[in-house]
Amino acid sequence: MASFLNEIPRESLQNLLSCVRVHTSPSVPHTPTEGATPAPLLSSLGRGHVIEVQGPASSGKTHLLYHFVLLCIAPSREMSMDFGGNGLAAIVYDTDASFDVARLHQLLLTRLTLVLPYNREMTRRLAEESMQRLHIFRPNSLLQLATSLLHLPCYHTVHIPEHEIGLIAVDSVSAFYWPDRFIAEQMRNIPQLAREGPDPASVHPLQHVLTALGRLRLSHAPVIVLTNWALAPRSSGLVTLYKQHLHPFPLCSENDDPNTLLSSMLGDLPTTPVPLPLTHHITLAPVSIPPFAPELSLHDAVQQEVEYRRRMVQKGEIIGLVRTTGSREISRLTFCITPENIDITCL
């Protein structure tokens, strides 16, 4: 696996997304204020980009989301100082109950302190102003999520009219997968004659979520980030990728058409149109433990594994493989999670 990964181009997340930027059509409305110049969204990301972050448990999905949120809510410039943010509002739907506001605040303070190392009062004020641009909702079902998304324009107009929405994130879109699957199976067991009206199982609640996100993408053009569980591995060469377990869901395609499947990596899934085209797909995986030498004893192997795992946790390094719609190339990024910061680095 190491030799295969070495052949993949290595670059930072910012440089990578700069190279694959797709400009949104000028006809798409992107700001609630007429005549206003739209602010750049999340550094090199284009307006209306849709990013899926997929990976197994504890692979760094939420921490990568923290990075996107910080780029959105952090100030852009203050007193001729560049803070690298956009100063826009971020809307986060925390369906997994794993989004830690205290952790985000800590990471924000660290980043601001790098620019203002000797002005704690201004750092604290900027952090407080930035956190006020973060809005978190915790729906209990996909239907609640879809309803909240449909009413988000009204919420924006009433509660945050002074801030443009730069980011909408769902962490995680898989949170209700098992309950919804159980309900769908139960509904299929009900005789058709006993049902009133159309078949409730004919339209999956996820379809309503994607439709609502698609409308927001057209009306507000935010960057949309969807974290997703990795449940069904599918190996391609020496790298483990994952099948898509959510249906319907946008898939990353080698062609310009986002509904065309990347069948060699994702398996054979039905090609149904989706209301939310996927721009980038990021697959995360912690750095794997190297294989043990054949002559190593069981006792030494156990001790070596403990030492490897200790180093991995301390280093906090995560590898990501990025696929982009319209491209056959797979790019590689890495980031390190430390107690104080998230370092997006180039190997």
Automatic annotation (TrEMBL):
Q: Which InterPro entries does this entry report, sorted A to Z?
A: P-loop_NTPase, XRCC2
Biological-process GO terms, alphabetical: DNA strand invasion; double-strand break repair via homologous recombination
Q: Which domain of life is it from?
A: Eukaryota
- Gene3D superfamilies membership: P-loop containing nucleotide triphosphate hydrolases
A GO CC term assigned to this protein in UniProt:
microtubule organizing center
Q: Which SUPFAM superfamilies match?
A: P-loop containing nucleoside triphosphate hydrolases
Q: What is an example of a GO molecular function annotated in this UniProt entry?
A: four-way junction DNA binding
Q: What protein name applies here?
A: Uncharacterized protein
Q: Which organism is it from?
A: Rhizopogon vinicolor AM-OR11-026
